[in-house]
Amino acid sequence: MSDDKVRLDKWLWAARFFKTRSLATEAVDGGKVDVNGARAKPAKLVGPGDELKVTVGSQRYVLRVTGTGERRGSAEVARTLYEETEESQAQRAKVAEQHRLMATSVEFDPGRPSKKDRRDLRKFRER
Questions:
Q1: Where is the RNA-binding S4 domain (predicted)?
Q2: Is the full-model pTM beyond 0.90?
Q3: Which domain range does residue 38 map to?
């Protein structure tokens, strides 16, 4: 094993895409991670130059690995392990905007009518 490559599940954990290695392993086994366009196993070795497609929840990231790390460090260190493509950032921003707009357009049911509402309803029906 060369020094500049690390297991995929360890890299995902060190880059802070998943909180634990077991969650990273589950995601890889579940088909949520592609390495260089192909489905991968958790023990797949990744290194600088590899392209990853990672799905976390409803977020889809397209990344290029720039560094390896077997230890989980701070968020600043984790951001140095990869760079996200411009298309990926634009797509995630577009999806986030759509979610935001959908959330504001939903009307919620006010619940049970108040006593005044019931009186007004009764008056309306009696006419």
A1: 6-68
A2: no
A3: 6-102
